[in-house]
Amino acid sequence: MTGLFATKSNATSIASLAEEALWQELELTPKPGLVDKYNNGAHRDMDHALFVRSIAAIVPWFSRFTELGDKHAHRPASEQLRMIRPMGIACEQAMYAATGGVNTHKGGIFALGLLCFAAGRLGEITPQRLCCEVSDICRGLVERELAARSAQATAGERQFHQFGLTGARGEAESGFATVRKALAGWNHRHLHALLLRLMAVNPDSNLVSRGGMNGLRYVQDYAQNLLENGWDESALLAMDNALITRNLSPGGSADLLSVGWVLSRI
Fold it and tell me: CA 133, 135, 139: angle at the middle one, nearest 5?
């Protein structure tokens, strides 16, 4: 990836990009299996208006993440997760208060919060440096929070021990490797194309939770087929209907779409 350099003085622009990324993701329509302007996707407890309220509650926190990263920039990357986590939890609580307890953007808060926090720590910002900083901050996260735990109390722990999936933690620790892979062949014009590229390769834990590994492979194969053979709005609507029928929602790819949009605009 390539990008223009930015200085720490305007690193807060990353917070503005994060806000715009959430709106871009929400307004993208049709969005197979996901909430968009046409329908609620495979969700019964979410709709477009709920996402609007959620975004409004979340976006004030992005600049706070950036400011926090700047404040603790002198500390080593290994100490940063304990600095950012209380603020991440507070942002999640603001989301839940706005949505009546519905998880609309928890994954987005994690990923975009890390990007904003990392931007505050950096003197010069490029997509590559930003991703490397996130990776450094999250180093050892999978080992500590998934591999070392045997209770399998959470969906993430169960999926790691059953299928080796590392979810959002692994994606962050890798410096958003799945996003960077998808961006490498994207023409930066059609956001639907980036979403399909992500869905084709992302080991989306949301899909596994809803449809097991068969559900994940179904969506990956469907997206890859559209990329190889061409797609239009009617094809996306057909995919939307297919995913809704199977109760499959690629929410993890939606979160990564927001990350990819931020990185592509730096």
Answer: 120
DSSP state of 7: E
SS3 12: coil
Token pair of 236 as six digits: 């996306």
The β-bridge partners of 125 are 6
Cα 160 from Cα 154, distance rounded (Å): 10
For 203-224, b/e burial (b = at least 16 CB within 10 A) is: bbbbbbbbbeeebbebbbebbe
The rounded distance, in Å, linking the Cα atoms of 48 and 37 is 6
Check: CB of residue 61 under 8 Å from CB of residue 87.
yes
Q: Which of 79, 141, 140 is nearest to 110 (CA)?
A: 141
Please list the pLDDT of the chain residue by residue as tens digits (266 residues): 334 444 444 566 999 999 999 999 999 999 999 999 999 999 999 999 999 999 999 999 999 999 999 999 999 999 999 999 999 999 999 999 999 999 999 999 999 999 999 999 997 899 999 999 999 999 999 999 888 776 666 788 889 989 999 999 999 999 999 999 999 989 888 999 999 999 999 999 999 999 999 999 999 999 999 999 999 999 999 999 999 999 999 999 999 999 999 999 98
How close are the terminal C-alpha atoms of the chain, in Å?
10
Nearest to 114, CA basis, from 171, 188, 166 = 171
pTM beyond 0.85, yes or no: yes
| Structure-token match 């997509």, residue found | 127
Phi, psi of 40 (to 5 degrees): -95, 10
CA-to-CA separations, 182 to 193, 227, 259, in angstroms, rounded: 9, 12, 11
What pLDDT shows up at residue 154? 78
